[in-house]
Amino acid sequence: MNFDILTLFPGMFSGPFDESIIKRAKDKQLIDISLHNIRDWAVDRHQTADDSPYGGGAGMVMKAGPLAACIESVKSLHPESTVVLTSPHGRRLTHSVALELADKPGLIIVCGRYEGIDERIRSIYAEDDISLGDFVLSGGEIAAMAIIDSVTRLIPGALGSAESAESDSFGDGLLEYPHYTRPPEFKGLAVPEALLSGHHELIRKWRRKESLRKTRTLRPDLLSNALLTREDRKMLAEIEQEEANGR
């Protein structure tokens, strides 16, 4: 899968993409990441890529000319890729959105900066708008990193185990169950007996129930959209009763 990142600050990406899962995916040639400095498409000697907004006001706006030229150049190399803007106007990045993006041949991610980009870029070129949430970032670079990381994990072969992606939080609409490793006791807290039993079905049920418990406690809103089985609903009833009894 091709990822093309259009940014005014390509140096911000030198670390995050050279470690861990992203690096391994690149080494396996599962993904290709290319950085494009928008200033390289500016026509003046100062490589100006921003200007003051029409109508006045604080801040600067990314100019349409250099950005359009950059998008068109990259799009000519990867015509099947989808142009994505990182923007607070966009739909929120969720697991289902990441799944949708992972099915595309490639993404051309435009990192917004300053007060934003000239709206004509959105009108002419944007095929998708993605936001990380209702908070302010200095620019779209961190959002681009999050998009690429969340999508790369879903590409077959990127993770050491396909089961890891399936069991991650939000993979089935729920938060993931708690994890433990050695030692069996730490500062007076013991690993749950079910996990030490070696009984696969007992472990499966414990993990599912704790996944439901954590979701009910921390993100109850997720339960309304999750595909719950009869067993799940029985476990939720048990959890409710346990909480009523002061567990």
Task: Characterize this entry briefly.
The protein has about 250 residues and is α/β, with parallel strands linked by helices.
Keywords:
247 residues, alpha/beta, Alpha/beta knot, Trp Operon Repressor, Chain A, 9 strands
Describe this structure in words.
The protein is α/β, with parallel strands linked by helices. It is built from 9 helices and 9 strands. It has 2 domains: 2-152, 3-Layer(aba) Sandwich (Alpha/beta knot); 169-244, Trp Operon Repressor, Chain A (Orthogonal Bundle), CATH 1.10.1270. Helix content is 37%, strand content 17%. Strand 8 and strand 9 (189-190) form a beta hairpin. Helix 3 (95-102) packs across helix 5 and helix 8 (200-218) packs across helix 9 (230-244). The model has no long low-confidence stretch (mean pLDDT 94).
Largest sheet features: 5 strands, parallel
Shape: elongated
- Whole-Å distance between the termini? 48 Å
Using the coordinates shown, work out and report the CATH topology of the largest domain.
Alpha/beta knot
- As a percent range, the share of strand residues is 15-25%
Q: Which structural class is indicated by helix and strand composition?
A: alpha/beta
> In the CATH hierarchy, what is the class of the largest domain?
Alpha Beta
- Fourth CATH level, the homologous superfamily of the largest domain: SPOUT methyltransferase, trefoil knot domain
What's the helix count? 9
Question: Care to count the β-strands?
Answer: 9
Strand order of the largest sheet: 2-1-6-5-7
Q: Can you write the helix and strand succession as a string?
A: EHEEEHEHEHEHHEEHHH
Mean pLDDT: 94
Q: What share of residues is helical?
A: 25-40%
Total separate domains: 2
Radius of gyration: 23 Å
CATH architecture tag of the largest domain: 3-Layer(aba) Sandwich
